[in-house]
């Protein structure tokens, strides 16, 4: 299994929550792949608030460069759950008969809530090398992987300026490494998600150019994935995980959209603990993602993405989209928790 150690960016390689009280049945351990972004709040908040422990599940967090790198270990059972961008690799795996499923939303770009943006190095903007999107031509732009949802957004930025996809030099790199790479001029820019977007701006390394909602609103950027065994042998654990996950997502919504001060403090503390950004004040400046409090996935966006991957050579055989999403787990969780209000 290819696991990326984030060194300076991630608190530990594996973080384990047991949470089982003495006398209770042993907790079921679930291995969760993630990229340490703000949209992982649905993983981090339940860890800190004890929601996973209440459900009798123990969590091991394993950092990856992107969700595309999680597909193989999910398919062979080395990971139980993955969280990250929708990828061509997911559709290709399903076309080969690998029984992966999207089970919940983990980040959607809504108008005015784009936690993903194109950031260009400050010196390039100040020198006049970059003035408009047409100046993307020849620049080295950081991307977590090819054939993932942010790749679609980057190509759309290029096409908005009548550029071809290969006019931009894509450099594959983990999100936490992109801001340091821009600082040492190994990258000219990047398509950054939070917290890295705000980190680049506050450190005066990058300049905001345009947010992704301007070119692809309501893009289902990130999702929660279940390995095949989570829908069979570990079905009950999958249900319990989802209850805790949605509790965490709802705390996130209470914090940033209902603006409940105590919830905001708790959520920010969790994000600062598990993401590379430790400055609590930066979280007040970030553009927070839309995390659906009922876990609903935007199927129309998935349909568009699969078509884009097919047209651009990343997917050779399209899959039946009615099989891509398994709603049973969010429906179970919503039945237990009620609809979010």
UniProtKB/TrEMBL annotation:
Residues 1-23 form the signal peptide. It comes from Eiseniibacteriota bacterium. The keyword Signal applies. This is ABC transporter substrate-binding protein. The keyword Transcription regulation does not apply. One of its GO terms (cellular component) is periplasmic space. Belongs to the bacterial solute-binding protein SsuA/TauA family. Keywords: Signal. Its main location: periplasm. Transmembrane segments: none annotated. It is found in: Periplasm.
